[in-house]
């Protein structure tokens, strides 16, 4: 997969050199390029923003530097398929684990990090000629710009690429992979500061352990994220699930 990120703060994306994603880049599993939007300006002051038509607070990102940047990265498209342009915005569609799985199937993702009050809307319309455009939000709160959201989205997508996570089984049994939160986990010692690991986990009975974990998933989800249970596909419940539910 190829990922291009366009930002006026390329240094914000430096953590993508580290850890799992940094290793994936070193191993050639992921090609990731960060571009400075200002390098696509032509004026002396490298201007990327201007005042909003209609008035109001703040500044709006100008269209032409974005068009230059996006044309440049689209020209480098690695595959036959049109690249996906992800536009991080609190006004976007919600980014979920399902979105991460979808985007992990693409040949090229381009992330357009807006700042200020956003990017001139005509860029988003025009970009649909070259890209599949996906405005995406992490959740219902406001960040100062798209960069931190891109760190989160690239990590969520990158770890799903083949070979990036050493043991692919760890992707199966994690929160949100099956619509429920993860069960609690414990390690040695079995007794710590007068707190015991649940007996069942020491029993060696793997059938019982699996049922206990499933039950804990439902209990936790009901307590912390009841909205997920509303959306949970009741048709996929097996008999043990129904008992736990
Ligand atoms: Cl993707 N961008 C910004 N600027 N704020 C956000 C967000 C994204 N998701 C939640 N808040």
From TrEMBL:
<keyword id="KW-0819">tRNA processing</keyword>
<feature type="binding site">
    <location>
        <position position="114"/>
    </location>
    <ligand>
        <name>S-adenosyl-L-methionine</name>
    </ligand>
</feature>
<keyword id="KW-0949">S-adenosyl-L-methionine</keyword>
<keyword id="KW-0808">Transferase</keyword>
<dbReference type="GO" id="GO:0005829">
    <property type="term" value="C:cytosol"/>
</dbReference>
<dbReference type="GO" id="GO:0052906">
    <property type="term" value="F:tRNA (guanine(37)-N1)-methyltransferase activity"/>
</dbReference>
<dbReference type="InterPro" id="IPR029026">
    <property type="entry name" value="tRNA_m1G_MTases_N"/>
</dbReference>
<keyword id="KW-0489">Methyltransferase</keyword>
<dbReference type="Pfam" id="PF01746">
    <property type="entry name" value="tRNA_m1G_MT"/>
</dbReference>
<dbReference type="GO" id="GO:0002939">
    <property type="term" value="P:tRNA N1-guanine methylation"/>
</dbReference>
<comment type="subunit">
    <text>Homodimer.</text>
</comment>
<comment type="function">
    <text>Specifically methylates guanosine-37 in various tRNAs.</text>
</comment>
<comment type="similarity">
    <text>Belongs to the RNA methyltransferase TrmD family.</text>
</comment>
<feature type="domain" description="tRNA methyltransferase TRMD/TRM10-type">
    <location>
        <begin position="1"/>
        <end position="230"/>
    </location>
</feature>
<dbReference type="InterPro" id="IPR029028">
    <property type="entry name" value="Alpha/beta_knot_MTases"/>
</dbReference>
<keyword id="KW-0963">Cytoplasm</keyword>
<dbReference type="InterPro" id="IPR023148">
    <property type="entry name" value="tRNA_m1G_MeTrfase_C_sf"/>
</dbReference>
<protein>
    <recommendedName>
        <fullName>tRNA (guanine-N(1)-)-methyltransferase</fullName>
        <ecNumber>2.1.1.228</ecNumber>
    </recommendedName>
</protein>
<dbReference type="InterPro" id="IPR002649">
    <property type="entry name" value="tRNA_m1G_MeTrfase_TrmD"/>
</dbReference>
<dbReference type="InterPro" id="IPR016009">
    <property type="entry name" value="tRNA_MeTrfase_TRMD/TRM10"/>
</dbReference>
<feature type="binding site">
    <location>
        <begin position="138"/>
        <end position="143"/>
    </location>
    <ligand>
        <name>S-adenosyl-L-methionine</name>
    </ligand>
</feature>
């Amino acid at each position: 997969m190829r990922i291009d990120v366009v930002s006026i703060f390329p240094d914000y994306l430096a953590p993508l050199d580290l850890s799992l994603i940094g290793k994936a880049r070193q191993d050639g599993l992921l090609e990731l390029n960060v571009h400075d939007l200002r390098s696509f300006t032509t004026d002396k002051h490298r201007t990327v923003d201007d005042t909003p038509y209609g008035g109001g607070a703040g500044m709006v990102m100008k269209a032409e530097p974005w068009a230059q940047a996006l044309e440049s990265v689209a020209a480098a498209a690695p595959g036959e398929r049109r690249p996906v342009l992800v536009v991080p915005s609190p006004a976007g569609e919600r980014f979920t684990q399902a979105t991460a799985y979808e985007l992990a199937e693409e040949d090229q993702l381009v992330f357009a990090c807006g700042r200020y009050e956003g990017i001139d809307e005509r860029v988003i319309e025009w970009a649909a000629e070259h890209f599949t455009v996906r405005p995406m939000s992490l959740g219902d709160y406001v960040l100062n710009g798209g960069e931190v959201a891109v760190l989160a989205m690239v990590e969520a997508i990158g770890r799903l690429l083949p070979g990036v996570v050493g043991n692919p089984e760890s992707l199966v049994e994690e929160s949100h992979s099956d619509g429920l939160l993860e069960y609690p986990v414990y390690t040695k010692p079995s007794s710590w500061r007068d707190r015991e690991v649940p007996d069942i986990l020491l029993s060696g009975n793997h059938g019982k352990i699996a049922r206990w974990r499933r039950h804990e998933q439902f209990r936790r989800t009901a307590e912390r994220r009841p909205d997920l249970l509303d959306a949970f596909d009741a048709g996929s419940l097996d008999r043990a699930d129904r008992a736990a539910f």
